[in-house]
Amino acid sequence: MDLADLTRDLETLRDDALEAIATASDRASLQALEVDILGKKGRLTLVSRGIGALPVEDRPKVGAIANPVRQAIEAAFTERDAVLHAGALEDRLRTETVDVTTPGRPVARGTLHPSLEAMREIADIFARFGFTVYESPEIEDDVTNFQLLNIPPDHPARDLWDTLYVDLPGHLLRTHTSPGQIRVMRATRPPIRALLPGRCFRYEAVDASHDFEFFQVEGLMVDEGTTMGDLRGLLDEFARAMFGAGRKTRFRPGYYPFTEPSVAFDVECLVCGGAGCPACGRTGWMTILGAGMVHPVVLRSGGLDPERYQGFAFGMGPERMKMLKHAITDLRLFMDDDLRFLGQFR
Ligand SMILES: [Zn+2]
């Protein structure tokens, strides 16, 4: 092999390469061609190995011949690639269209938790009657949670509230929102119209209608001359606003240590309309809340004179309102994290 042979080989390779590059139809085949010619085991590399077989005096001249060949091939690749790229872009522009009138993908918006939504609904209804929302602590002291509400330490009614105690002497997780009554009476003066929504805790075995953690909404009204007739009228309005106009309601005797007399407030069954069905235990009625006239002991605990002031209180479960309205049979769904359930309330 001499310099003339190498020159001929390189020129042949260059001509072949330039033709192949010019006719490459897409970028993928052009890339394959590039590997085939310029790659580590490519044809140009193989031809260049012939340099080793040249006489020593010819070797310095090789560069002058081989470099222009490599440069010409590399330039051809660059140029062809640009052409193919532009073509591919044009093809895409031709085939892929953007319809700017197509509606966008909907953004997934969260919803209020049904318990919170129910509490707001209840608060909205009572706000029409002048009730203001107060918040009261979830960690409460035994005195306010029980004793000031007419439930002394040895009172059998304590059995009704299985209590979760916290690691702080004399303190517990409130078992009901009623201690808020004491706090409101002490913080304000009559006339009092307060709504006390919040989370409560009881040491309960969890089942379809009990949870160890639940929400309550408590209401308190205290003024001079407040009667049970006011309570009944207010609750009737509430039941109609919540469950629809024309619903029949009734009071049944009930028992709470902090109200006297105490009642259960029933509304005509939402499923059967009063005829009697499995949902209402064939009674035609559904209990929606408990209520009563504030016990004189509780008024005194709140710093008020029971000879001058009377009041009533009521308490309900916001989840129960939702369960009755939507025929939900399992309370546990509210504390689970299943969005298929939670997302149904908007
Ligand atoms: Zn019924």
Describe this structure in words.
This protein is α+β, with helices and mostly antiparallel strands and 346 residues long. It has helices spanning 3-23, 27-38, 43-48, 59-95, 114-127, 142-145, 179-187, 228-243, 296-301, 318-326, 339-342; strands at residues 132-133, 139-141, 171-173, 192-201, 213-223, 249-256, 259-268, 285-294, 310-316. The strands form two sheets. It has a seven-stranded mixed sheet with strand order 1-4-5-9-8-7-6, with helices on both faces. Strands 2-3 form a two-stranded antiparallel sheet. A hairpin with a 2-residue loop joins strand 6 and strand 7. Helix 1 runs parallel beside helix 4 and helix 2 packs antiparallel against helix 4 (59-95). 29% of the residues are buried. It binds zinc ion. Zinc ion binds next to loops. The site of zinc ion (ZN) has 8 residues, from loops.
What's the gist of this structure?
This protein is of the alpha+beta class. The chain contains 11 helices and 9 strands.
Largest beta sheet: strand ordering = 1-4-5-9-8-7-6
* pLDDT < 50 stretches: none
**Total tally of structural domains:** 2
Residues in helices, as a percent range: 25-40%
What Rg is obtained from the alpha carbons, in whole angstroms?
A: 42 Å
Q: What is the CATH T-level topology of the largest domain?
A: BirA Bifunctional Protein, domain 2
* Main sheet specs: 7 strands, mixed
Elements, N to C (H/E): HHHHHEEHEHEEHEEEHEHH
Name of the top-level CATH class of the largest domain: Alpha Beta
Strand content: 15-25%
Outline: rod-shaped
